[in-house]
Design goal:
Shape: rod-shaped
Number of strands: 12
Helix content: 40-55%
Strand content: 15-25%
Number of domains: 3
Number of helices: 11
Largest sheet: 5 strands, parallel
CATH superfamily of the largest domain: Response regulator
Distance between the termini: 83 Å
Order of helices and strands: EHEHEEEHEHEHEEHHHEEEHHH
Length: 344
Amino acid sequence: MIKDSTPYRILVIEDNPGDFVLVEDFLFEQIESPVIQRAHTYGEAASILCNEDCNKEPRFDVILLDLSLPDNTGEPLIKDILAFCYQSPLIVLTGYADAAFGIKSLSWGVSDYILKEDLTSVSLYKSIVYNIERKKSTSALEESEKRYIDLFDLSPLPMWVVDLNTLEFLDVNKATVANYGYSREEFLRMTLKDIRPPQELPKLYEGLKLGRQNPDAPSQRVMVHQMKNGDIRNVDLQISPILYKNRKVSIVIATDITERIKYIQAIEEQNEKLKEISWMQSHIIRAPLSRIMGLVSLMKDPNATECDKQLMLDFLTQSADELDQVIRNIIEKSKRADFRLPGE
């Protein structure tokens, strides 16, 4: 038989010498060089495990626990050991056949529950290997969930998880609470309709209808939201489908673009003012200016009589006065126009 060459580090918490020797023999039957450390009591095990650094790799790949020790037994023993060894799988070895208790212990975090009378070298080895791999997968999932929670909750932008079928909020981050004014508990009792002004609900339904045409694709929407204090804000929504607690939902990132829209509107208004002034300059000024230029040309005519020149001079004065009035109107209109942008 080929033995497993992996140097598994195993803590055996067992007060019975005979049972420990049996477990040790089983381990050496299947594993070439297991690194075995023994604790006779809960106190001894706690002393060993309390030096574990949760930020480093655990000292033990697996922990085997007898359920009846001189200084601790049963449920309290399991929960006390789990408090120390949450990074390593815990396999309970017991002589008491209590199926209900065994099932219950799994819900507390025990990786496996094996009766000593059913124990063999093969069953023990399989349990160790399977549960080590399961723990790795579970730890990787927990780490992934932690990264998601950190990215989600610490984001400076409002983010929420929502079911677009029921419209209910499933989770919101701190920025959402801070910006919208509702508490997290209030959000979890609300739906998307509750942050829309009534007149915006048709636009919400239309957006949902478009999103359902391609539910697996990210989308973008500009919507109007209403804060708890009644403020109306324009928001740009980036919507992406995700799997959240085994449920296909959407994660939404909201960017407040209210000031951006006001800025664009102010620029557009200024452009209109500038167009009006430009039209005045190019059209209204052009008429008297053209007359002046024509009259000046006529006054240079050597054949013009004094009477003609006086008449042309009167027309020239009239056009100059008209041009002066147009310029005054442009100056006055420019004074009344506010060309400052929002925030200036």
